[in-house]
Each structure stands twice: as structure tokens, then as C-alpha cells.
Write a structure and sequence with these properties.
Blueprint lengths: L4 H11 L6 E3 L1 E4 L2 E4 L6 H16 L15 E2 L9 E8 L9 E2 H10 L7 E10 L2 E10 L15 E4 L2 E5 L23 H14 L7 H18 L5
Parallel strand pairs: 5-7
Antiparallel strand pairs: 1-8, 2-3, 4-5, 6-10, 7-8, 9-10
Length: 234
């Protein structure tokens, strides 16, 4: 059975009612069973859980060679320019701080695979107490819907001592019933705004501002997107 990202989201959230579900994290070796209280492994475990859930549900998907490869799930097995799904997770009791993508790797990737901009992001917000985990919310978003500017950069990134490492999300949501509307941060309106902010960021960063790739990157990504999809980047 082949599903789109939206159909997968509907099946997971509305049919299986994953929001509010609780689980435990344990590890057993040589007859010794421990309860995992660290959040370091939660993201990978949720991704592995989703892989198994899709298999049990009879949903077809392509498997990437490793967890570091893009995309996490290839839902369209007939056209690899479509059906790309990335999974991200974060501690719902804090602001989202996962890596959307490595900045330089994403820069190179969009030159070759500009259709990557159409990828969907399945994002899971969880709460963890001890070794118990609860799914608090789930979103299906595009990259420009979870990113935005920061105080110092056109595109919010993880920056250490002036060096850019990863694209970081803004807080795109408000908790149900929240009156603190200032907690939601601005996001881009479309893929074009996101790509333009990315380009402005690489032109501002001294490590990339003067290299040859930067000088033609924006126009090549826009033209490449048109070539692959037949649509203007909007």
C-alpha cells in the first residue's frame, strides 16, 4: 500500500490516535534489564518505531542505507523526486532544537536535488518522565514552515564562534489554550523565501560569502527546481 505523507499523517494521528499515547524505553542484555532515562536516543527510537509501524500497517516505503541518509522515508517508490519524508522529534517541554539539516550539506544537496524543497517533515513532540514517554503532538510541515530568521542571521542556524553548522527550527506552534502568542516565532511563507534567506545567510557568512558556489547558487537552485518539477519556486 502506497501512501502520501498526508495520508500517513492521517493514519498515524487520526486513525491510530498516536497523540496522547505513552510508552517506555528499556534495554536488556545478558539478563540485565535497565530503564533508559536519557533523551539522547529518543529520536532514533521513534524513527525505528515508525519503520516497524509502517511495515505492520502494510505501507510501502524505501529504506535508506543509514539513518544519516536523506530522506528517512521514501514513500513514492516510482518517483524519487516525490514522497520524501523526514522525521524529527523534540522535547515538547522545551523549544524545538533539532537539526533540520547540516548547512553545507544542504547547500550542496539543493544544487543536485532541488526537488528536496518539497519534502515533508513529520515532527513528533514528546514529553519524558523517567523512562516513560508520552506523545504530546505531531505535525506535518514543509521546511519553510518550521524555519525562519534569527536576530543575527536571515536563516536561523546553529552558530558557534561565527561558524554555521546546522539549520535550526523556529517555534512554529502554540500550545493548545496558550495565551502567550509571543512564543510563536516568524516562519517563511513559501519555499522561495526560505531559499532566499538561505542564500542571504551564505552571503553573510565569511566562510562562504566569496566562493564560486555562492555566486551562482540561488539562480541554479531556482532554475533546477523549475527543470525537475515544471513549476516556479514559490
Amino acid at each position: 500500500m502506497q501512501l502520501t505523507s498526508q495520508e500517513l499523517y492521517n493514519k498515524l494521528v487520526h486513525e491510530s490516535k498516536i497523540i496522547g499515547e505513552k510508552g517506555i524505553i528499556r534495554f536488556e542484555l545478558n539478563g540485565h534489564d535497565i530503564k533508559i532515562t536519557s533523551k539522547d536516543s529518543v529520536g532514533n527510537l521513534l524513527q525505528e518505531w515508525l519503520r516497524d509501524w509502517l511495515t505492520v500497517q502494510g505501507v510501502d516505503f524505501g529504506k535508506t542505507p543509514s539513518t544519516q541518509d536523506f530522506p528517512d522515508f521514501q514513500l513514492d517508490l516510482t518517483d524519487n523526486t516525490k514522497g520524501m519524508l523526514e522525521m524529527k522529534s523534540f522535547d515538547y517541554d522545551k523549544s524545538p532544537n533539532f537539526d533540520v539539516a547540516a548547512f553545507l550539506a544542504y547547500r550542496r544537496s539543493l544544487l543536485v536535488h532541488p526537488y528536496r524543497l518539497d519534502s515533508d517533515y513529520l515532527i513528533v513532540g514528546y514529553s519524558m518522565i523517567g523512562h516513560h514517554i508520552e506523545i504530546k503532538d505531531v505535525w506535518l510541515k514543509k521546511v519553510w514552515e518550521i524555519t525562519g530568521p534569527s536576530t543575527d542571521w536571515p536563516l536561523k542556524c546553529q552558530v558557534k564562534q561565527g561558524e554555521i553548522f546546522n539549520i535550526r527550527p523556529t517555534k512554529w506552534y502554540l500550545r493548545p489554550g496558550s495565551r502567550d502568542r509571543g512564543s510563536k516565532q516568524p516562519n517563511f511563507k513559501n519555499a522561495y523565501e526560505f531559499v532566499k534567506a538561505f542564500d542571504d545567510t551564505q552571503r553573510q557568512w565569511t566562510a562562504t560569502s566569496r566562493d564560486q558556489m555562492t555566486s551562482t547558487w540561488f539562480s541554479k537552485v531556482v532554475a533546477g527546481y523549475k527543470k525537475f518539477t515544471g513549476e516556479d519556486l514559490l
